[in-house]
Specification:
Number of strands: 8
Order of helices and strands: EEEHEEEHEE
Distance between the termini: 13 Å
Structural class: alpha/beta
Radius of gyration: 15 Å
Largest sheet: 6 strands, mixed
Shape: globular
Mean pLDDT: 97
Strand content: 25-35%
Number of helices: 2
Low-confidence stretches: none
């Protein structure tokens, strides 16, 4: 998850999703992930205080600042690089498992009141973002 001043994802030269200030969430789904993980992660993303208050302290959440979220599926986050020089993606969930969990995450985040833009699941995407801070946080459900 990265705090951004803007972000967008394009597929085949067409903008699939775009946001202003908020969070860009790169979401990897593992074989071991369950539906409840999507809900827990959405709650954490919505409520995690990574935006600054007037004193410059991280004290505001995505919901507090009325920020937007761009959720992009990214199975490469599940890469295993322990052996050799070629990453293994054996722990990444297959598309028929990953896509419903990705969609469940997006819907759960919307359920908290966040505006959520998305990429295109399974497509080759180009993600552009301006990391604000920079602030980048790794979350696990």
């Amino acid at each position: 998850m990265q705090r951004v001043s803007r972000a967008r994802v394009t597929v085949g030269g067409e903008v699939a999703g775009e946001i202003g200030a908020g969070l860009c969430v790169l979401l990897g789904v593992a074989r071991s992930d369950e539906a409840s993980a999507a809900d827990r992660l959405a709650a954490k993303v919505a409520r995690l205080r990574v935006f600054e208050n007037d004193e410059g302290r991280f004290d505001r959440s995505l919901l507090d600042v009325h920020g937007e979220a761009l959720a992009v599926s990214q199975f490469t986050l599940i890469a295993d690089t322990a052996k050799g020089n070629r990453p293994s993606f054996g722990d990444a969930a297959p598309p028929e498992q990953a896509e419903p969990l990705y969609e469940a995450f997006c819907e759960a985040l919307r359920g908290f009141g966040a505006d959520v833009a998305t990429g295109s699941f399974g497509a080759r995407m180009e993600v552009e973002l301006a990391n604000d801070g920079p602030v980048t946080i790794v979350l696990e459900a």
